[in-house]
């Protein structure tokens, strides 16, 4: 599975917006802190997979990177996605390394 660090994501976002962020956390977690993008909770992934693009890099986000890794495994093995990146360390890594003012939980 391909991963992207918080710093690499920050650099990539500063150069281009041709990337999709998909957050697989629960809505209550997304309300605490988020990077924007599309909220598709894990339990909705199968039903809403059509919202995940295949034509641009897609960064999957969760709290620490475990649920997003599970989502990537499902999407690649079951649905043939080949353009997915896991945010290493999740939103927690972003909050500690990139934006210390972001709420942590």
TrEMBL record:
Domain Rhodanese, first and last residues per copy: 15-103
Alphabetical list of PROSITE patterns matching this protein: RHODANESE_3
Organism of origin: Pontibacter toksunensis
Pfam families per UniProt: Rhodanese
Xref: InterPro entries: GlpE_sulfurtransferase, Rhodanese-like_dom, Rhodanese-like_dom_sf
Name the record gives this protein: Rhodanese-like domain-containing protein
């Amino acid at each position: 599975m391909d991963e992207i660090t918080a710093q690499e994501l920050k650099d990539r976002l500063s150069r281009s917006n041709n990337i999709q962020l998909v957050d697989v956390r629960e809505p209550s977690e997304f309300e605490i802190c988020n990077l924007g993008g599309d909220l598709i909770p894990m339990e909705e992934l199968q039903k809403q997979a059509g919202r995940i693009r295949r034509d641009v890099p897609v960064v999957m986000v969760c709290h620490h990177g475990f649920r997003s890794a599970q989502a990537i495994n499902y999407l690649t093995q079951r649905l043939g996605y080949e353009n997915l990146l896991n945010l290493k360390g999740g939103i927690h890594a972003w909050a500690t390394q990139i934006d210390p003012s972001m709420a942590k939980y």
